[in-house]
TrEMBL record:
Protein name (record): RING-type domain-containing protein
GO molecular function (one): zinc ion binding
Record-linked InterPro entries: Znf_RING, Znf_RING/FYVE/PHD, Znf_RING_CS, Znf_TRAF
Listed GO biological process terms: regulation of canonical NF-kappaB signal transduction
UniProt keyword list: Coiled coil, Metal-binding, Zinc, Zinc-finger
Taxonomic path: Eukaryota, Metazoa, Chordata, Craniata, Vertebrata
Coiled coil: 293-327
Zinc fingers (TRAF-type), renumbered ranges: 143-186
């Protein structure tokens, strides 16, 4: 349970809600334990920081300070967001008039109230450190973010010093945690605190040792990886070998069967060979017969030519015969003439002398 809630519930029971005296006590208590309040969440602007009169309606009903990040209940009572959210964790009513409310009914402040609130003038929270800035509530946050009197942490890593912004540069110049590069060129960044102890050789030796051990680690890792890869490859090879062995066994098994088949096929092959020899013999015989046929056909062609020749001769002889018969008839009619009797016989002789070719097969 947050500290502020203990404080409120201790003084502000449901029975005494709205009692100004009690509220005053709360504020007193808060002032006494400011650190405790601040560490929880910001709640309300301290009314003492404001210049001039502040309307009662712009005060938070819970912390009685000027509203910070305000919300309004339907009963028109206004509260800092942090105050009312904290209140509603353990209550379900308005702390002023006890009307039933919850977080869902809370609304932003009326615009005119918001404007009034924003116009209020107040001192910077760093007034106690010397800042004399007075500005409107609307712009106080922006000022305080950049206020030269704000306490900020040193920007050097490891330094816990909190310092006013305006003094930061001065502090950084002497901060024990400021760093600079080694002037001897070893490449190290030296913190001011260990300036005198810096030994370039020792630093580099340490670095070297680190690098060496890192290298050894990496080499070991690479070695392990290679070994595991080799191992898996070896396993793979063994598997392959056994698969190949199985295949060889399978190939060996069908040999007897193949041999049996071969024995069956061999006689058939011999028969086939014999048949092919027969076919070859038949073919050579056929070719001989064909050549005989060809020569017979040539002889027949010869005979036909001779026949045609004989036919021609026959026609010539017939003509000759007809000529002779005519001559005979003329000689019989006109009387015998010796010279005329001799001419047909001479023609016959010449016909007999013509060469005749006879082909004998
Ligand atoms: Zn408040
Ligand atoms: Zn109310
Ligand atoms: Zn300031
Ligand atoms: Zn520092
Ligand atoms: Zn060095």
């Amino acid at each position: 349970m947050p500290i502020w809630h203990l404080q409120i519930s201790g003084f502000l029971g449901d029975n005494v809600a709205g009692n100004c005296q009690v509220m005053g006590k709360i504020r007193d208590q808060r002032n006494h334990t400011r650190q405790g309040w601040k560490c929880v969440e910001s709640m309300g602007y301290d009314i003492e920081r404001f210049v001039g009169y502040v309307n009662e309606g712009l005060l938070c009903s819970i912390c009685r300070d000027v509203l910070e990040d305000p919300l309004q209940a339907p009963c028109e009572h206004a509260f800092c967001t942090a105050c009312i959210h904290g209140w509603l964790v353990h209550h379900s009513n308005c702390p002023e008039d006890r009307q039933v409310i919850d977080v869902s009914v809370l609304r932003p402040l009326y615009r005119y109230m918001k404007n009034d609130l924003n116009r209020l003038q107040l001192h910077c929270k760093n007034r106690e450190y010397g800042c004399e800035m007075v500005c409107s509530l609307e712009s106080i946050d922006r000022h305080e973010r950049e206020c030269e009197y704000s306490q900020i942490p040193c920007s050097n890593a490891g330094c816990t010093v909190q310092i006013e912004r305006r003094n930061l540069d001065g502090h950084l110049a002497v901060c024990e945690y400021r760093s600079r590069e080694c002037p001897n060129g070893c490449g190290y960044t030296i913190l001011s605190a260990e300036d005198t102890q810096h030994n370039c050789v020792a630093e580099l030796r340490t670095e070297l040792e680190l690098l060496r051990s890192e290298m050894i680690c990496r080499v070991e890792e690479a070695k392990h990886e290679m070994e595991s890869r080799l191992d898996s490859q070896r396993r793979h090879m063994v598997q392959k070998e056994s698969v190949l062995q199985n295949e060889i066994e399978e190939l060996k098994n069908p040999l007897p069967y193949v041999r049996g088949q071969f024995n069956i096929v061999t006689p058939s092959l011999e028969e086939l060979l014999y048949c092919s020899e027969l076919i070859l013999a038949f073919q050579s015989q056929m070719s001989r017969v064909m050549s005989d046929v060809r020569s017979l056909m040539a002889a027949e062609r010869q005979h036909r030519q001779e026949l045609e020749q004989a036919e021609l001769e026959k026609r010539e002889l017939m003509e000759l015969l007809r000529g002779l018969q005519k001559d005979c008839r003329l000689s019989t009619a006109e009387g015998s003439r010796k010279t005329a009797n001799f001419r047909p016989l001479a023609r016959l002789e010449s016909a007999k002398r013509k060469p005749r070719e006879v082909t004998v097969i």
